[in-house]
Every structure is written in C-alpha cells, then in structure tokens.
Design brief:
Layout: E1 18-22, E2 31-35, H1 36-40, H2 42-54, H3 63-76, E3 80-85, E4 89-95, E5 97-108, H4 135-152, E6 156-164, H5 172-178, H6 181-184, E7 189-196, E8 204-205, E9 209-212, E10 214-223, E11 227-228, H7 238-256, E12 263-271, E13 278-279, E14 282-291, H8 294-314, E15 318-324, E16 330-332, H9 334-348, E17 353-354, H10 367-370, E18 375-381, H11 403-417
Parallel strand pairs: 5-6, 5-7, 7-18, 8-17
Antiparallel strand pairs: 1-2, 3-4, 4-6, 8-18, 9-16, 10-14, 10-15, 11-13, 12-14
Helix pairs in contact: 2-4, 3-4, 4-11, 7-8, 9-11
Bound molecules: zinc ion (ZN) (2 copies).
Length: about 425
C-alpha cells in the first residue's frame, strides 16, 4: 500500500518524477502526488522517526538527536554540515547548479517533559521525556528531503537545512539567529512546517500575516495584610483582591481590544494561603497573553498592568506585575505564503490546501527567523486528533503516513524556489 501501482505525470513537473499516492491518505478516488524517490524512502523515514521517538531529548540537550541528524546528512553526501549552532543545532548546505538563490528549510528537534502513555512499541525509553509535538516527524521529513535533494540536485543555488533545537519555550530559534544563522547562511527566504492533529493527512493550511501568536506570560504578586479569618476587617485581604483581579482582567479583551482584533488574556494559576482560618499576606497569579500585533501586545500589557495595580489598590493591597515577553507572533509574508500554498497544492491538490487558515493562538519560535527573513510557516494535517492524539498529549503520536507528504513538500519547495 505504501507504493501503489498508479503512476502519473503532472503538468508542472520539472526535474523529478511524481507518484500518485492513493487511498490511505485522501478521500476515496482522490489522489495526491508524492515524489517517487521520497516514496522510496518512506520505510527509512519511518525508521528514523521511530528511533527519534524512542529517544527523545529536551531543548538544548538534543546531542544524540543532532548526532543522528549529522550521521544521516553525511551519508547523503550533503556539501556542508555545521554543528553546535545554538548548542545542539545543525545546519547543512546542499548545492545545486552554480549561481541562483538560497532557501532555508527549518525543522525543530526537541521533545517535551511528558511521560508517554501511548503503549506503542517504539514508545519513549525515557520517563518524563516524550516527542509529543511531532518534532521527531519534522526531523525525519527534512532528512528525507535532504536525501532526495542531495541525490538529484535539480536546482540552481543552495538549500540550507536548519535543524533547530529547543522550540518548546526555550527559544532555540532566537539563539540561532543571535549566533549569526543568517549571516553565515544568508538565505533569501526561510520556510517552516508543523504537523496539525485534527486535520486530514494530506491537507495543508496557511495564511498570510500572523499564523501564530505572541506568547507573553505574567506573574502578579498581590500583597496585602493578613490576619485572622474571623476578623477580616483588620486585614487587607489579597485573596479577595486577586479574585477581583481575575474577573477584571477579562475586561482587557472584552472592553479594550477592538472587536475585529484578536487577543487572549488567561489567568492559569492562583496560589496563596495555607489555612482555612488565616487570611494570607500575599497571593500570586500566573497567566498568559496572546496577541498577533505589536499594537495589541502593548495594549494588553498596559491594560493588564493598570488593572492589576488599580484593583489591588481598591482592596488596600499592592500588585507587583512581572510581565515576561515570550515569542513574537509568527508572521507569514505575502509572496512566500502564496508560493508555499502553491507548492503544497502541487503535492496534495488545490482542494486540500486551505489558504485562509484561522491563525492559532499557540506560539512558535520560528517567529524569530521570520523576523529576519521573508518566509512562511505551514500547517500539515496529521490525521484525527481523537483519543487524546493532540499536540502535547501523552497519547499523541506523529502520523507516519504524513512523512512522504511533508518530505515531498520540502523537495518541491526547494526545487521551485531555486528553479532559475
Ligand atoms: Zn509543541
Ligand atoms: Zn511543535
């Protein structure tokens, strides 16, 4: 089933043959085109992916993962392999014909601090470590693409493969940029991809402008004057102030953010107090703010600080707001988004590419790369998200049927971007 007998040529074929990929991925009677050579690698990509899945490493600790990537890249005969960028990051270069442009293809490599509960025979061997975001699949797809591109070299210019560490919270993309990623490898555009549970395998979704949010967080310390719970009039109750603050913060989105804009302010943790009959001195609130533009980011921060301070004061307390800027929004540039969508359509057909995807309020540190270079980040269907098979769940697993689709997308993207 992996390599069905139905072959066809596509009108836009340039350098490489495609294979119709029937049945398992799409609606009945539909077809999609993966590269024949990539389909040949499907079993290898599955083996790589499952090896990585069984051996997950957290951000900036991906030493075995990086070594595995470097070994494969060397086997494929890529022209350059650079290790140690952002500690465990790897960048490889594949050259085609002389001249031409440079394109960057980026994947992430890190796992999450979760204990896997899938029961799969290639489950994580490490308690408290799991590839629960599919970065194992992302690495396998980019390796598959590297192998094909290094074999065929049917392009003019250079493909720069970016194996980025520490996407989850630690900002490995930002560290790569700070360490001179684009000075050393001056690509004309850079592209990223993430699997998306809940969308069919063989579908893609993308939009111009922001596709992922800025992911700021905050810690608010509300300080009052504690005392006996039976004598509340002798206290300045920080719990009451904190509760009122949680309520009042809902007004940021409801009454300050313009209705056509999007933002999220969520309080996610309240802690304070030790006894049922003691009003504590202090309470702490944690939460997150998600926005798509610098204007909304500033507005939400300003309003949050004003509300925390004002509500605390109303209750005779004080608030200390520690506002922490996280990843910036991931903003797709127009030309590269159209291009990426048309590449996806080459592989899976126009009907399976949603060019007006609803942006996610999740975050993504590919944002730092897109701040430096034009480019686009695309979401690729990973199949049903039922049974807890969603990102960051202990029941999640990357869908191996998506491997040849993602790898074909990368190869096609590089060959078209570097066609002339
Ligand atoms: Zn994740
Ligand atoms: Zn991820």
């Amino acid at each position: 089933m992996r390599r069905p007998g139905a072959f066809a040529s596509l009108a836009r074929l340039q350098a490489t043959a495609y294979q119709l990929f029937r049945g398992r991925c799409g609606a009945k009677g539909d077809s999609m085109a993966v590269l024949i050579r990539i389909a040949d690698f499907h079993d290898d990509m599955i083996a790589w992916r499952r090896h990585l899945h069984a051996n997950p490493e957290l951000g900036f600790e991906e030493t075995a993962t990086s070594a595995f990537v470097c070994e494969r890249l060397s086997e494929f005969g890529v022209d350059e392999v650079h290790e140690g960028i952002a500690k465990t990051g790897v960048v490889a270069v594949i050259r085609g014909r002389d001249g031409g442009r440079r394109v960057g293809l980026r994947c992430d490599m890190d796992a999450l601090p979760l204990t896997e509960q899938t029961g799969l025979d290639y489950s994580s061997k490490v308690t408290g470590r799991m590839h629960a975001c599919g970065h194992d699949g992302h690495v396998a797809m980019l390796l598959g693409a590297a192998r094909s591109l290094a074999e065929t070299r049917a392009f003019k210019g250079e493909v720069v493969l970016i194996f980025q560490p520490a996407e989850e919270n630690l900002g490995g993309g930002q560290v790569m940029v700070r360490e001179g990623l684009f000075e050393r490898f001056p690509v004309d555009a850079v592209f990223g991809l993430h699997n998306w549970p809940g969308a069919a395998v063989g579908s893609f979704a993308i939009c111009t402008g922001p596709i992922m949010a800025a992911t700021d967080s905050f810690v608010v310390g509300v300080r009052g004057q504690g005392g006996h719970a039976a004598l509340p009039h002798t206290t300045s109750d920080p719990l009451l102030a904190a509760a009122a603050t949680v309520q009042a913060l809902q007004a940021v989105v409801a009454r300050s953010v313009p209705p056509r804009e999007a933002a999220v302010v969520s309080v996610t943790r309240i802690s304070g107090g030790d006894a049922y009959n003691v009003i504590p001195d202090a309470v702490e609130l944690w939460g997150t703010v998600r926005t798509y533009t610098p204007e909304m980011r500033k507005l939400c921060r300003d309003r949050l600080e004003a509300i925390c301070n004002g509500v605390a004061e109303t209750h005779g307390c004080t608030a200390m707001v520690d506002y922490r800027r996280g990843y910036p929004p991931t903003v797709n540039s127009d030309v590269e988004t159209d291009f990426a969508a048309s590449v996806a359509a080459d592989i899976v057909g126009e009907s399976r590419v949603n060019r007006n995807a609803t942006p996610s309020m999740g975050g993504e540190d590919f944002a730092y790369l897109l701040e430096q270079r034009p480019g686009a980040y695309i979401l690729m269907g990973n199949g049903p998200g039922d049974g807890g098979r969603v990102l960051h769940s202990p029941f999640y697993d990357f869908n191996d049927e998506a491997l040849p689709i993602g790898a074909s997308y990368w190869v096609r993207l590089a060959e078209r971007f570097l066609a002339s």
